[in-house]
Amino acid sequence: MTPEALLRRVTKGIERGDLQPLFDVVDENTVWISASAPGGAFRFGGEYQKRAGVVEVTALIATTYHFLRFEPREMMAEGEVVWGLFDVEAQYQPTGRILKMAIAIRWRVRDGKLLEHQAFFDTANLLAQQALPA
Prior knowledge:
Blueprint: H1 3-15, H2 20-25, E1 26-33, E2 47-49, H3 50-62, E3 65-78, E4 81-92, E5 98-110, E6 113-121, H4 123-131
């Protein structure tokens, strides 16, 4: 499976609330870098190592957000690296409010396994949406 097809499959799973496609491709030494700094505005900020780290960060994300839509807008791959820009809607668990954002994801994949994950999103916009009344 190409890196692009792998990213599409995993994000489709996330949209359905199914993390198994992600866990199936995580390499034992995966490095997961979140869009925000550790100890910052988001519980899941920072860098997570290995399979256990991916389980930890996805649990932290799931306690705050329930993804409703994770639709690819644009994707491109070269060799082991794939980039995707996604239109995302998520329910913010503390208020039930629906948040909309764009998320850019960069993966490095080898032999069908995720070696590196890095995500980027407009943190100020997301925090502003969360602060609005439900």
